C-alpha cells in the first residue's frame, strides 16, 4: 500500500511539473527600424529573445522591385548591401535563436495582385533570404533565415494566403532540410482585416497579436472583458496556428496606447493568458524601446 502511495505522489509531482512548464513561453522582438538599438549580434547576446524579426521588407509585389529597409543599420543600395549582418545572423542561430524576415510594416509600398504574383514574391524571398537557389542579390549573403513574418498593415489583404501557402510548400522542397517558420502580427480586433485571410490557410506557427493601438481589445487596468474576449477568440479553434503570443509595446513611447506595466503583466495578464494551451509568450515592439525600459529583462522569468 505504501509503495503504491509513494508511486502516486511521484507521478502527481511529475505530472504537475510537466503541466506547469507546458505553459512556459518565450519572447519575440522586432529589430531593424532604429539605428540606436544595437547590432543584431548584441540583441541576441542579451539572452532575452527566442525570436527576432528583422524588419522590414517593405516593398514588394505587383511588379515592384523588392526593397529591404533597415533604417540606419545598412543600405541595400550600397555595394556591400547588408552582408555585414551575415555573421550576426549565424551567431544568433548558433545560440538557438530563430531569425525571421518580417515583411510589410506600417510604412511601405507593397501589395499582391494575384496568386501568381504571390508565388513570385514567395520565390524571391525563398531564393534571397531562405534556402533557395543562390542569388547574387542575397542581402545577407549566404546566411539562411529561419522564416518569414507577415506584418501586413496596408492594402486589402488579398493573396497573402497564397503567399503563405507558397512559402510553406518550399519548406518541404528537395534540398531544404528544415521547415520554414511562418509567423504573423495581426492587430487584436478579430478577425484582422489584413492577415485574416492568410491565417485561414492554416500554415502559421506563431501568431503575435498586437494588443496595442486598439483600445477596444487591449488590456486596461480595472476592466479586462474586452481584452479577455479578444484573447479567447485568438486562442480558439478559429485560428489554426500552433502558438499565440501577446504583442505589447516595450514602453509608453513605443505605441499610442496599450502599454502594460510590468507588475500588472506579471500579476494579472500572464496568469490569465497562460490558461490557454496555445499560449506562446510575449512579443515586444521593439528592441529600441526595450533598451530604454529593460522590459524584457523584467518579465523574462514570468513569461
UniProtKB/TrEMBL annotation:
Annotated keywords: Carbohydrate metabolism, Chitin degradation, Disulfide bond, Glycosidase, Hydrolase, Polysaccharide degradation, Signal
Domain GH18: 25-303
EC number(s) reported in the record: 3.2.1.14
UniProt GO molecular function: endochitinase activity
Recorded GO CC terms: extracellular region
Catalysed reactions, semicolon-separated: Random endo-hydrolysis of N-acetyl-beta-D-glucosaminide (1->4)-beta-linkages in chitin and chitodextrins
Similarity comment: Belongs to the glycosyl hydrolase 18 family.
Record-given protein name: chitinase
Lineage: Eukaryota, Viridiplantae, Streptophyta, Embryophyta, Tracheophyta
Amino acid at each position: 500500500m505504501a509503495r503504491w502511495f509513494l508511486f502516486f505522489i511521484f507521478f502527481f509531482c511529475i505530472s504537475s511539473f510537466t503541466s506547469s512548464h507546458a505553459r512556459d513561453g518565450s519572447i519575440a522582438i522586432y529589430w531593424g527600424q532604429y539605428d540606436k538599438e544595437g547590432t543584431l549580434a548584441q540583441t541576441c547576446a542579451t539572452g532575452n529573445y527566442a525570436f527576432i524579426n528583422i524588419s522590414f521588407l517593405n516593398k514588394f509585389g505587383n511588379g515592384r522591385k523588392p526593397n529591404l529597409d533597415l533604417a540606419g543599420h545598412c543600405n541595400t543600395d550600397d555595394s556591400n548591401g547588408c552582408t555585414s549582418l551575415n555573421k550576426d545572423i549565424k551567431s544568433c542561430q548558433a545560440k538557438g535563436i530563430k531569425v525571421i524576415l518580417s515583411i510589410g510594416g506600417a510604412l511601405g509600398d507593397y501589395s499582391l495582385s494575384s496568386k501568381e504574383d504571390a508565388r513570385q514574391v514567395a520565390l524571391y524571398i525563398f531564393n534571397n533570404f531562405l534556402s533557395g537557389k543562390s542569388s547574387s542579390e542575397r542581402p545577407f549573403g549566404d546566411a539562411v533565415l529561419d522564416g518569414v513574418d507577415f506584418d501586413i498593415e496596408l492594402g486589402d489583404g488579398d493573396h497573402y494566403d497564397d503567399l503563405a501557402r507558397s512559402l510553406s510548400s518550399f519548406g518541404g522542397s528537395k534540398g531544404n532540410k528544415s521547415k520554414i517558420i511562418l509567423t504573423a502580427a495581426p492587430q487584436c480586433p478579430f478577425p484582422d482585416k489584413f492577415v485574416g485571410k492568410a491565417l485561414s490557410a492554416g500554415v502559421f506557427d506563431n501568431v503575435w497579436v498586437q494588443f496595442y493601438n486598439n483600445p477596444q481589445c487591449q488590456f486596461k487596468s480595472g476592466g479586462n472583458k474586452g481584452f479577455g474576449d479578444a484573447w479567447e477568440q485568438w486562442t480558439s479553434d478559429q485560428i489554426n496556428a500552433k502558438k499565440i503570443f501577446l504583442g505589447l509595446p516595450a514602453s509608453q513611447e513605443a505605441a499610442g496606447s496599450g502599454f502594460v506595466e510590468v507588475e500588472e503583466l506579471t500579476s494579472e495578464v500572464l496568469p490569465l493568458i497562460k490558461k490557454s494551451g496555445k499560449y506562446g509568450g510575449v512579443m515586444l515592439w521593439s528592441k529600441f524601446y526595450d533598451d530604454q525600459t529593460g522590459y524584457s529583462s523584467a518579465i523574462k522569468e514570468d513569461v
